[in-house]
Amino acid sequence: xxxxxxxxxxxxxxxxVRINHLDTGPxxxxxxxESQNPGGSIKDRIGLKMIEDAEAAGRIRxxxxxxxxxxxxxxxxxxxxxxxxxxxxxxxxPDKMSREKISNLKAMGAEVVLTRSDVAKGHPxxxxxxxxRLASEMDDAYFxxxxxxxxxxxxxxxxxxPEIWRQMDGDLDAIVLGVGxxxxxxxxxxxxxxxxxxxxxxxADPEGSILAxxxxxxxxxTKSSSWLVEGIGEDxxxxxxxxxxxxxxxxxxxxxxxxxxxxxLTREGILGGSSTGTLLAAALKYCRxxxxxxxxxxxxxxxxxxxxxxxxxxFWMRDQGFLExxxxxxxxxxxxxxxxxxxxxxxxxxxxxxxxxxxxxLYDVSQLPVIADGELVGxxxxxxxxxxxxxxxxxxxGPVSAAMVTELTEIDYRAPxxxxxxxxxxxxxxxxxxxxxxxGLITRVDLLNYLRRRADH
Length: 457
Fold this sequence. Notes:
Blueprint lengths: L15 E3 L9 E6 L9 H14 L8 E5 L3 H13 L2 E7 L4 H9 L3 E5 L11 H10 L4 E3 L7 H17 L6 E5 L4 H13 L4 E7 L4 H7 L28 E7 L1 H15 L5 H16 L5 E6 L13 H6 L33 H11 L3 E6 L2 E7 H8 L20 E3 L7 H6 L4 E5 L2 E6 L1 H13 L1
């Protein structure tokens, strides 16, 4: 590969890989790794195109402020381009987005405004409406508006479509894709209408989105529900959307999306994001329904590195009810980090308080069981550490044993859930035991997660 003049020259020409170890029925299934774009997603393509088109039209100039509402990946694509071209970038993002995405955006120089993810279009805190309003209130600000920007589908009509057709040697029967802003489906529809009109387009949609029902039944629901998959699915039809060539749609649950996405990593070695799981789940359903061999393409929309704290985190998956765990019918079902499975984060009595504090920060926990020779001898929480070191930071070198609490509030695992409330009312954490055997901790958050899972089912 020759030396490139800028990172932006790496956008596009992403590889296509055959799926080898998943059940694809009679079909050949291929996945295009848009995660290999320099910003880590397919949205790099439209980020570059929308900014360059705005420059060519004279809508922005060096020093202008760009504003956009985004689920994250378009923001990363815009941040990549804006940083190279010297634009200020303000992004309005729904609060369900992963911490990795938000940290990535800030690290690239974008200013992030978080807003509610539980409101629909038309609400003043809906991320697109808020972004549009912010842009209108600022001088020399340009609202990118990916959902209504014609440069969005043109990026895929002019570049992505020809790229796919060339890579597949003109031999492709179907493409399974998702819809966020609808640029991909609209652009590819236009390209393949001219170059392969028989090629089938299939939509992968999260359960809760209105799009699958619109494609399959022709009805446009006015009500959507929430979903956890990021970047695809909608509660309205984007103004740039063209679904006329989409033949069918699959509604995929969050649970199946995350499960299939994780299987893609363990079986094929491909680390994709949550929407990749949705697309792959739909593609596998489509392939298995066929009665004769077809060549099918889908996308790894973005890198899974942005979801390590969510779909690739067993504790998060368990809290959401997406991992099957043994149900005991007692308080053991509420323990997020069971001690016997080595999931409990612990500390020793002779370790320095600095170790305990670092462990709390690293694992995002507020209390640590203190274990000596396999036995629970105390518990240490953030307030214990604070009281021990307040005013004298060198006390971080002191032992955990000097700060831990040894009068423990224990509860038998067979006790009713109601017995947890008096413990929490005293601002304690519940220490669950089977006789003298330590099983784990239950916090208020663990109880809330348990109650929410029961409500969901």
